[in-house]
């Protein structure tokens, strides 16, 4: 990955929301990388080693929890910085994310893009 800009991998199946995140993060000086599902996100993560991963939970082909578990089995992936960004307020999903060392769990409807950016910056310090 480029050492000039910190890279953020956005794993999100909603194309519109993903595009908004890419635009915002690019404006904030990050290198934004996109994946449309967990399977693609896992492959990109293991290939490119982004500085942080924004991970949705409910996606086709491979959901976020499965992707997170598989990522944690990889030597690099054990320590990858992950923020869950989802619309799901399911306590079981939150517990699974925490068990798999997600750094933070953000509910999309309860936060602004500026808040998401601030949390990303905090995690990358």
Automatic annotation (TrEMBL):
Q: Where does the Response regulatory domain start and stop, copy by copy?
A: 7-124
Pfam families noted in UniProt = Response_reg
List the InterPro entries hit by this protein, alphabetically: CheY-like_superfamily, Sig_transdc_resp-reg_receiver, WalR-like
Q: Which residues carry this modification: 4-aspartylphosphate?
A: 56
Q: Which PROSITE patterns match?
A: RESPONSE_REGULATORY
List the keywords (alphabetical): DNA-binding, Phosphoprotein, Transcription, Transcription regulation, Two-component regulatory system
- Cellular component terms (Gene Ontology): cytosol; protein-DNA complex
Q: Which residues form the signal peptide?
A: none
Q: GO annotations under biological process?
A: regulation of DNA-templated transcription
List the molecular function annotations (GO) for this entry.
Answer: phosphorelay response regulator activity; transcription cis-regulatory region binding
Q: What is the designated name of this protein?
A: Response regulatory domain-containing protein
Q: What is the lineage of its organism?
A: Bacteria, Candidatus Staskawicziibacteriota
């Amino acid at each position: 990955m480029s050492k000039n800009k910190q890279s953020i991998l956005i794993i999100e199946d909603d194309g519109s929301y993903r595009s908004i995140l890419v635009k915002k993060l690019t404006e904030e000086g990050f290198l934004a990388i996109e994946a449309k599902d967990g399977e693609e996100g896992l492959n990109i993560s293991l290939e490119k080693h982004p500085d942080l991963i924004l991970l949705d939970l409910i996606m086709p082909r491979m959901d976020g929890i499965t992707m997170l578990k598989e990522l944690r089995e990889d030597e690099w992936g054990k320590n990858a910085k992950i923020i869950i960004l989802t619309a799901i307020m399911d306590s079981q999903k939150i517990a699974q994310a925490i068990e798999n060392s997600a750094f933070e769990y953000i509910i999309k409807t309860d936060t602004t893009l500026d808040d998401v950016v601030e949390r990303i910056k905090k995690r990358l310090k």
